Amino acid sequence: MDRRNLLKYSFSGLAASSLMASGLRESFLKKVEKTSFSLSSTNNDEDYWELVKSEFAFEKGLYYFNNASLGPCPKLVVDATNEFRALLDGFPSKYMWGGWQDEKEATRQKVADMFSADKEEIALVHNTTEGMNLVAHSIELGPGDEVILADHEHPSGTVPWQHWQEIRGFKIVRPKLPILPESKEELIDVYRKAITPNTKVISMVHGTNTNGMILPVKEISQMAHEKGILVAVDAAQTAGTFKIDLHDLACDFYAISGHKFMFTPKGMGVLYAKKDSQKYLKPLIVSRQHFKDPSIRRLENYNTRNYPEMLGMGTAVDYYNLIGAEKREARLRDLKAYFRGKVENDSRFKLKTPGAEDLSCAIQNVEVIGKKVGDVKKMLFDDYMIDCRPIGSHGINGLRISLSVFTTKADVDYLIDALKQV
Ligand SMILES: Cc1ncc(COP(=O)(O)O)c(C=O)c1O
After folding, report:
1. pLDDT tens-digit map of 322-341
2. Best residue for ligand 1 mutational test, from 66, 67, 128 (most atoms within 8 Å of Cβ)
3. Residue 9 pLDDT exceeds 60
4. Residue 173: helix, strand or coil by DSSP?
5. Residue 24: its pLDDT value, please?
6. What is the secondary structure of 275-321 as a DSSP string?
7. 349 C-alpha vs ligand 1 centroid, how far in Å?
8. What are phi and psi of 150, to 5 degrees?
9. 325-421 is classed in which CATH architecture?
10. How far is residue 386's CA from residue 378's CA, in Å, rounded to a whole number?
11. pTM
12. How far is the CA of 257 from the centre of ligand 1 (A)?
């Protein structure tokens, strides 16, 4: 295969057609070719995952278990974004005002394909916070109406509703979730009990940022829809971890941060809005296209945007596809089992994340018994250069360990050794 065809084959869409059409440098295209070739290998041994890790330029000596706070970009995404930035600065007005129309739509299509959605259901926004704000600002509730927000919601999922509650006077209902449910039915039950005839919206996180627990969005959405309740989902911690089919998930709105497990450039996100539910949404920002474009694009800011990052998101999806959704998910589940297997029968530790496959994936939380989590976090960083997030809320007192495709089993061994020393 000649290079053009190889790129088309392994790096479909943006890099192949539009990137090449955009006059990108030969040196960059060579890197794309090399990475595409090695990552699309069918190998699945530790050497393969070491190779994946080598695609990330971490600070020397750093062990990064904090992907749930912020993800890194693989070098390819960094390089692509820099290429876009150089092009933009070479001819600013051309690229900002229409020159990248096809590339922007190609990015939307890639994101739609990644989540089995329709391109016309995908708004390219900046992050989960923006998506959740857009939903809360749009839905005009009033006195007597209720919104359910369980106790593990992130501030990006609560503050927008609390803000509008003060202005519009609806009620927020805050049920408590168990942190170690035996099954998803236990979680569904919490929501079932919180629903009243006044419930209009359930706003829920897909994966909690506290202990990485996965909530059964599909079942809760089905239950909600039977009662005419809308479901908005904060997907900051799930997008890019396991395979997500948004039509099957059945929620109305799904707000994604690209810059965590999807490895997009920082400040890129997605708001999915189901076709039939788009009528409820109003843009946060309005400008020139507002009265002309009834499509989901009306929810994006039409004026000057961060296009290098937006197109870099397309490259991040290409990168995701190079490894492949199934292989990525299987790896994260394998790492989870490997990590849990090392701590679950050790009386010095207590896992604070449910283990069932439908209840957790890339994020695990572990308590070092008898130690304050803040102290453990500090020791891990000061003595071992391990970065992870201490969680002290909800009675957890545990370290949030994010596992990612750049995590190797040797990294997990290093973490476990350090935890044992601590
Ligand atoms: C569950 C959850 N929701 C929302 C956010 C906010 O993400 P962003 O800053 O990308 O909007 C985070 C960030 O950690 C999160 O964990």
Report:
1. 999 999 999 999 999 999 99
2. 128
3. no
4. strand
5. 75
6. GGGGGG---SS--TTTTT--SGGGGS--SS--HHHHHHHHHHHHHHH
7. 27
8. -70, 170
9. Alpha-Beta Complex (3.90)
10. 9
11. 0.95
12. 7
pLDDT for residue 12 is more than 70: no
User: How distant, in Å, are the alpha carbons of 203, 209, 272 from that of 13?
Assistant: 34, 33, 21
Separation of alpha carbons 231 and 215, rounded Å: 13
Enumerate the CATH 3.40.640.10 domain ranges in the chain, comma separated.
107-319
Contact between residue 204 and residue 190 where contact means Cβ atoms under 8 Å apart: no
DSSP E strands in 88-234: the ranges are 122-125, 146-148, 171-173, 199-205, 230-234
Which residues lie closer than 8 Å to 248 by C-beta, 6 or more apart? 116, 218
Residue 4: is its pLDDT beyond 50?
A: no
Q: Which pLDDT value is given to residue 40? A: 83
**Lining residues, ligand 1, CB within 6 Å:** 69, 127-129, 154, 156-157, 205, 209, 234, 236-237, 257
Q: Which residues of the chain form CATH 3.90.1150.10?
A: 325-421
Give alpha helix (H) positions in 174-275: 184-194, 217-226, 246-249
Pocket probe for ligand 1: among 125, 214, 237, the residue whose CB has the most ligand atoms within 8 Å is 237
Question: Is the CB of residue 381 less than 8 Å from the CB of residue 410?
Answer: no
Q: What is 107-319's CATH topology?
A: Aspartate Aminotransferase; domain 2 (3.40.640)
CA of 30 to the centre of ligand 1 (A): 35
- Ligand 1 atom closest to Cα of residue 207: 1
Spell out the long-range contacts of 253-259 with Cβ–Cβ below 8 A and sequence spacing 24 or more.
253/131, 253/135, 253/277, 253/281, 254/115, 254/131, 254/206, 255/128, 255/130, 255/131, 255/132, 255/134, 255/135, 256/128, 256/131, 257/127, 257/128, 257/129, 258/127, 258/313, 258/316, 259/70, 259/71, 259/127
Q: Which of 209, 253, 262, 391 to mutate to test the pocket of ligand 1 (most atoms within 8 A of CB)?
A: 209
The angle at the Cα of 38, spanning 33 to 43, to the nearest 5 degrees, equals: 155
CB atoms within 10 A of CB 294: 8
Distance CA 299, CA 290 (A): 9
Q: Greater confidence, 37 or 181?
A: 181
